[in-house]
Amino acid sequence: MVKLKKGTKRRPLARKYNIQKMVSAHKKKMKRLIKKGAKGQKRKIPEIPNCIFKKDILENLKRTKEIEKRQREAKSQT
């Protein structure tokens, strides 16, 4: 069976520099947003399928959230 030839990775320099320019512009934009204090996307609520341990898992999540909240409050007070 004959092997397929791979395509070349050569590209015009204009395309290469255009990609570099777009990447640097994107990085600048991300830095600017971070400086502004823009927040990321909200976390999704964990969807747990119905199973035997669903209640236990949900209770465990609640406890960990409460602990994290207390730690944040304690950290902000000091």
Give a brief outline of the structure.
The protein has helices at residues 13-36, 54-77. By secondary structure, it is an all-alpha fold.
Described by strand count, sense and barrel closure, the largest sheet is:
none
- The backbone outline, from C-alpha atoms, is flat
Total domain units: 1
Question: What's the total count of β strands?
Answer: 0
The average pLDDT score comes to 88
End-to-end separation in angstroms reads 71 Å
Written account of the structure:
This protein is mainly α. The protein has one domain. Helix content is 62%, strand content 0%. The N and C termini lie far apart (71 Å). The relative contact order is 0.05. Pfam families: GN3L_Grn1. Keywords: Nucleus.
Which helices and strands appear, and what pairs or packs with what?
Layout: H1 13-36, H2 54-77
Key features?
mainly alpha, nucleus, 78 residues, 0% strand
